Amino acid sequence: MLLKVLSNTWDEDIAQGRPLPASVLDAGSGVGVIGVCAGAAALEARYPGAPPCQVRSQDRDELARVFTEYNARQNGLSPARLSAYTEPLLAGPPGAAWDLILSNIPAKAGEPVLADFVSRSAALLNARGRVLLVAVNPLADFFRARIQAASLPLCREETGKGHTVLAYGPPERRPALCPAPEGGKDLLSLIPAYLRRSGSYETEGVPYSLDTCYGAASFDSPGGAVLTAAKLLTRLGIKASPPGRSPVPALIHGEDQGHFPAWLIKRAAGEKPGAVFPFRPLVLSGRNILALEAGRHNALTALGSLSGEGPGSRPEEAVLCRPALDLSAPGNGFPALPEPAGGYPFIALFPEPVPQTDRLGSYWEGLNRLLSPGGLVLAGLSASEAERFDRKKPKNFIRLGDIKRKGFRALAYRRS
In the CATH hierarchy, which fold is given to the domain comprising 187-415? Predict the structure, then answer.
């Protein structure tokens, strides 16, 4: 329905001699349908001598980015015509402004995020720009009210059996907004609408604080895989480094919101004077950039609370987040994870299943490449996935621990 309204709008623009957009933002791309169609149609409909249309597609999910990029190339759109990114809604280059923003807005994003989308999207438009969004009909009144409250011109509205398309323009005065998230910045500080809840938790007798965000699957509570992995690691033991010893790098893949890294920091370093968290940098990887940003925020907060780090300290370089589907080697559209010399002495792994696929072998290939000899890997999965994961174990990995808890299973291995 969104594409139908867009097509009709462009037909009217062409008939009345109005230029088509040269810059398009596809916010929440999924597999790329909207951005690919808009990019291809705009290229075909350009006036002679007009600059080509450039589309920036964005999604919080690394798997969506990979599919969008692949589908763009399959449809003849080069990287110069459509580029795809794993990033929060409306992120982008500092100071960027758009002729058109398109979005099949996710209804489950949370009302604060949806309201924030309306005001920020309008403020990111060029003078004659437009936002076209499609939403399920129960949300139409919500968006209409937010558009009216922001004093935005409602240019077009079409309602179908299950969905409504709303088109609105920029405000008369462009407000000052928080900057788009960039590498090294804190998403929850830059865009407070993503902050869902702040709370205190305790796992295996270790208390920690956590801020959770909208858009991450596990919401506010640690999942069963995390609780089971924490139980196993407590049994195995992991200790803080004595003062003066250099920390070593560690990798945590696939954990939502930051429960495990925040707990691990408090568990490994505790509150003892001079305690030093043994891992630095701590690399967080996974599909969901919102979960990664929340995890980084919470890990930095936990590090800053350690007496050995100094009161209120947030050593930004101590925690890195990198979008990644699994632990595959870079190439074929997959970005590279940092690979420290000698590997990671510790990797915590929470594999993210993709329906109708089996990526568990790729995790073992990645562990063989990334884990240092003698290093420890801890994996938390559902009981059924854990069985399949364990069956694929290479011979050079020795199982050190195995624990089950309420339908979940944690496994620990040492690389020989």
Answer: Rossmann fold (3.40.50)
